[in-house]
Design a protein that fits this description.
The complex is a heterodimer. Chain A is mainly α. The two termini of chain A are 42 Å apart. Chain B has two domains: 34 residues, no CATH class; 232 residues, Orthogonal Bundle (MetI-like fold), CATH 1.10.3720. The two termini of chain B are 38 Å apart. In chain B, helix 4 crosses helix 12 and helix 10 runs antiparallel to helix 13. By secondary structure, chain B is mostly helical. Classes of the chains: A mainly alpha, B mainly alpha. At the A-B interface, helix 1, helix 4, helix 5, helix 6 and helix 7 of A face helix 2, helix 4, helix 5, helix 6 and helix 8 of B.
Chain lengths: 274, 308
């Protein structure tokens, strides 16, 4: 019996180890190529890098105009994330407390987005008609709008756990409605804010289709578009391209390393909604 | 809807009635506005645009063309439509089946008391945080038919293939890459489901002499049914809509080997001279298909849940 369970654990570890390798090896391959010189890549494309070329990162940064794109991506991700937290947090409180007539209908409308079709054509019309194409605020507002159903859902669930006695205490003190939400409820919602914030920030950082359609100006492009276009132009410069991939992924992995809990909880809350 | 408040009458409350009643509505307004402009209007507007000759230029008048776009889709351009529907279903079925089967097994393994548990879990989940451009480019490099690492291995064993450049293999490689990038997501959801199964069920089964395999089929799987329903539905919705990873990896090719319905719509959206109204009509057809499949699968899975 003891022997059998040891074999079992061994097999389980082997299977999980193999899967882990499948997940990691592609990333390591990219890192390996990113550090090779042109000559080393041509001669030994698979071998372990011999003399790491850190300069590749500078090259792709300059040649691929990554500086501008990086800055843009950062602006989009930060603003969309802050905006989504503020706007959906404000909306979630009156919905969770049923503070206005029809609040449950509004809540249902917010959640219904999951069943709606992909609607790029009308979106193209809206973005054009409102002159939102190639503007910072246009794209940020679009990303906030897209994230609303999930973020309102997360915040409403969280506010329901905030005791109503607090509301009453605040009312006795004569605290105004907005001041109450912003100074009492928001600080209590920190975990939910971290979850929504990471979810929206990562979604925006990774977004490809919307920038492809609505941020076509080279000064407005985010990193994803920049990398995609760089690939179209320099498909043979594997070392630079790989360095570019590292530039786009490094902030994601840094966030994952430090804030894994919130990232995972954001992902799972999306499923409960489904 | 104000009933919960009147119950507390006598006690103090935030002013949500009379002069202060306006503030809750003010708080919801920005969210509602953005939602209406960027989600509600586009979703409903799709129906309208599918009956027009809208061509992407908002300054030109839009004409009502009746069912023309739908006729076009179902008659002289029906070949492209049916082909893309077929590709979509192959893609969706393969990803949904393999991903969910693998994720259940991985989750069960990770739910055991093994030492590197958290490490495995973190690494297997990691690819899910990468976006489609990064995932697509990483695998385009690895699958490159001239100097990519995979073709070296294939050639080493005496085989040969154009990989993403071959209509026979491209779709299956996209299936693999999609599973690679989203397996961790399904795994986490199944793990959450597994942690909800009470421990005493396994203990009493053990007393009754059940082995690991019997506990898996008679306790774990039945108790996991609700998680399976959610996961399978999420996979189906996601895969039936997929096109962004395909844009990056193959752009629908070679030929039309990887042109899913979503990809087909996206191509038409960007083709100059092909009306955007036509793309809208295709989106409506797409939506109806997704809705029908989801309803059928949901009814089936819930009936199985109820059988227990």
């Amino acid at each position: 019996m003891r022997m059998q369970s040891k074999i079992q654990t061994g097999l389980v570890n082997a299977a999980l180890g193999a899967l882990t390798l499948t997940m990691v090896v592609p990333l390591l391959l990219v890192l390996n190529v990113a550090l090779k010189s042109d000559a080393e890549f041509l001669n030994h494309s698979l071998g372990l890098v011999e003399s790491p070329q850190w300069d590749n990162f500078r090259q792709v940064w300059i040649q691929g105009e990554m500086g501008v794109y990086f800055q843009n991506s950062l602006i989009y991700a930060v603003l969309a994330s802050l905006g989504a937290c503020l706007i959906s947090g404000l909306a979630a409180f009156p919905i969770a407390r049923k503070h206005f007539r029809g609040s449950q209908v509004v809540y249902f409308v917010f959640l219904s987005a999951l069943f709606f079709p992909v609607a790029l054509v009308p979106l193209l019309y809206v973005m054009n008609a409102l002159a939102l194409i190639n503007t910072y605020y246009g794209y940020v507002l679009l990303m906030i709008g897209n994230s609303l159903s999930i973020s309102v859902f997360i915040f409403v669930a969280f506010v329901k756990g905030v005791p109503r006695e607090l509301d009453e205490a605040a009312a006795i003190d004569g605290c105004g409605y907005f001041r109450y939400i912003l100074t009492i409820v928001f600080p209590l919602m920190k975990p939910a804010i971290a979850t929504v914030g990471m979810l929206v920030a990562i979604g925006t950082w990774n977004d490809f289709i919307n920038p492809y359609l609505f941020l076509t100006d080279r000064n407005m492009r985010p990193l994803t578009s920049g990398l995609y276009l760089y690939f179209g132009q320099y498909a043979t410069k594997w070392n630079y391209l790989s360095a570019g991939i590292i530039v786009v992924t490094a902030p994601l992995f840094a966030a994952y390393f430090f804030l894994q809990r919130y990232i995972v909880s954001g992902v799972t809350s999306g499923a409960i909604k489904g | 809807m104000t009933r919960p408040l009147s119950r507390q009458q006598g006690g103090a409350q935030l002013r949500t009635k009379g002069r202060g009643a306006i503030w809750p509505i003010v708080a919801v307004t920005p969210a509602l506005l953005l939602y209406a402009v960027f989600v509600l209007f586009p979703s409903i507007g799709n129906i309208y645009f599918s009956f027009t000759d809208f061509n992407g230029n908002v300054h030109k008048p839009i004409h009502w063309v009746g069912l023309d776009n739908y006729t076009r889709a179902f008659t002289w351009e029906s070949e492209g439509l049916w082909h893309s529907i077929k590709v979509t279903f192959i893609f969706a079925v393969l990803v949904t089946f393999i991903q969910n089967a693998a994720a259940v097994i991985v989750a069960v393994f990770l739910n055991m008391k093994i030492r590197l548990r958290n490490f495995y879990r973190s690494v297997i989940f990691a690819p899910t945080i990468l976006g489609v451009v990064v995932v697509g480019l990483i695998w385009t490099l690895i699958l490159d038919p001239y100097s990519g690492p995979l073709i070296r291995i294939v050639q080493f064993f005496g085989g040969n293939s154009a990989l993403l450049g071959s209509p026979d293999t491209a779709l299956y490689l996209v299936v693999f890459v999609t599973i690679w990038s989203s397996l961790g997501y399904a795994m986490i959801l199944y793990l959450a489901g597994l942690q909800g199964i009470p421990e005493h069920l396994y203990e009493s089964a053990k007393i009754d002499g059940a082995n690991a395999r019997a506990s898996f089929f008679h306790i774990t799987l039945p108790m996991l049914r609700p998680s399976i329903t959610v996961n399978v539905l999420l996979s189906i919705i996601g895969t039936l809509k997929t096109f962004d990873i395909i844009v990056v990896m193959t752009n629908g090719g070679p030929g039309t080997a990887t042109t899913t319905l979503g990809m087909h719509i996206f191509k038409n959206l960007l083709t100059p001279g092909s009306s955007q109204g036509y793309a809208a009509a295709l989106s409506i057809i797409h939506f109806v298909i997704v809705l029908a499949v989801v309803l059928i699968v949901q009814t089936y899975l819930q009936r199985k849940e109820a059988d227990l």
